[in-house]
Amino acid sequence: MSAIEKISLDQTGLLRFITAGSVDDGKSTLIGRLLHDSKSIFEDQLTSITNTTRKRGAEGVDLSLLTDGLQAEREQGITIDVAYRYFATPKRKFIIADTPGHEQYTRNMVTGASTANLAIILIDARKGVLTQSRRHAYLASLVGIPHLVVAVNKMDLVDYSQAVFEKICSDFSAFAEKLNLRNIAYIPMSALNGDMVVERGDNLNWYQGSTLMDLLETVSIEDDINREDFRFPVQWVCRPQTKELHDFRGYMGRIESGSVRTGDTVTVLPSGLSSRIKEILVYEGPVAEAFAPQSVTLTIEGHLDISRGDMLVRPDEVSHVAKAFDAMLCWLSEQPLDLNRKYLIKQTTRVVKAVIGRIDYRIDVNTLAQEAVSTLKMNDIARVGLKVQQPLICDDYARNRATGCFIVIDESSNNTVAAGMILLAGGAA
Amino acid sequence: MSNQPFTHLDALESEAIHIMREVAAECANPVLLFSGGKDSIVLLRLAEKAFRPGRFPFPLMHVDTEHNFPEVIAFRDHRAKELGERLIVRSMEDSIKKGRVVLRSETQSRNAFQSVTLLDAIEEFKFDACIGGARRDEEKARAKERIFSFRDEFGQWDPKNQRPELWDIYNTRTHPGENIRVFPISNWTELDVWEYIACEKLEVPEIYFAHQREVIRRAAGLLPVSHLVQPQAEEKTEHIMVRFRTVGDMSCTCPVESDATTVEEIIAETAMTRITERGATRMDDQTSEASMELRKKEGYF
Q: What is the pTM of this model?
């Protein structure tokens, strides 16, 4: 770790977050408010949604239309799972994964959550902690979103009552404790009036904490990536074979976690052979050290047979090389799971054949009850056992998101049918 | 490098490099679409960062409407030569001659017809992946599109039947005849692109900078006078300082009034602007609320 402390790894430039909640909770209004108050809505967008608001016979500007979508959605009354929006303040750039709708919620939220640093869970102050709030909290914990904000919205409709806010906080935190969720911030707000979103407003003077925007701009996300274990899945082997670079062999990829220095001893998995890092190359030239999530080219001493799908690690921090393992699986496809079929699994840069041979239980995302089932349907979440034809080089998802996640592909349709999170420590989510 | 902060541009750059290497490793016959515009100029630098000291594991291709600004075409050829990479040009004129594209008039916008030439070229070369410079902040149909966007054998995009895309594990699989469009800079905004151009000191065609140009005010925009666009009765032309925010078909790409003559001035202007990039510059996107969506379903980028 000492090496990392020396460099200023100020990875604060880009924050990805997701908003969980329904239109009724004021989710679209909140996103509209963040975009509007950070001056990220453009005049032509505003004109367009003003026109649409008027066309639908309403007054003013319906900010929720900003996140409304395509002709296909309007015509068929469906919502497409996830839309991405962008805004920036002088301190940070933000990517919102906006996942609408009540239906297919599990599938959509898991998709949006998979890349998020932070989730905002919206709660209507009048209604308190509902089943859906618990479902959102569970999914956030399942996907391992590092930071959680509970936004208690519509405070204007409960007279900005501190007692109401505190009751909701204690209800939510009692549930969150069971899920092992940490790093939860609670913010009372009125997205409609703009209280505690970007501006503090005058109505919540009893609340001393940050506004939502303050928190988004300052939350430390440096440690959202595992900084300890060096993991380098090889993506592409560069062999120019030109006259000047006749013997050059560069291993190209992205450092998924940890860091590496020139001269470090590394072990190649799955072969287990070791060598030393000769050079760390970026486009501008060689560097002494590199860290996650940089994309680099590594050269090593001597000749080892290394190809795509192999992983470079440090000898004292090796990954697991597993041919059978357990996982939490979220089924995404309309076609149910077939326990007898072979599927493809893609994990880091490896694609292998797999059989999902066992379903331990399905989780009821509303009650967290475990149920025995014989197959999995769209939106189901279950603990399963898998066997793979070639070993995966992986870590427990809770320790390392990047090397603990995988997708399941149906070889006949080529569709992505499930998302998985590897369990190695024997724990259950 | 080690003492500098890891900025949002570093994060976006690393993501884009990772995406390009996945394409190279998993797709049998990819191509990078290069138009000479700013977004594809950024793509080329990212490809250099992804694959040097090796050569690009794909050729470059431009679908030429022959309604392009001559400065941009000159720039395209110069840049491809400088990189020493292979450039394929497929022209809409060929599609017109073959009767694959039928235009109502010579001066009609050709943007929508690019899809035909593009799909023909995909078939000719059997490309299974086309890397393009589209961004999600451009338009609301794009905001809902995947980084790896699957197209059926007719090149069509089906917005409600997209593959889920989780973490950064990309499903690159296709059946013969199908293809994927890949957008490595999906998560970049117009401002990010200009900041990156500044950071990397990238050269861009002159028409991105403010210059004197003869224009006509038509509808809400400015139209550049050329052999394709002539003043109609009662329209007057004027000479003013303008620059282009996007470069496309000359008959429908509008410049904006500007004094920005350097990349830094463009960044300052972009940070302040109150109109979206396509809203300001593309007449063809304003014909209906869903123009881009409809074009994409037909195989457009």
A: 0.91
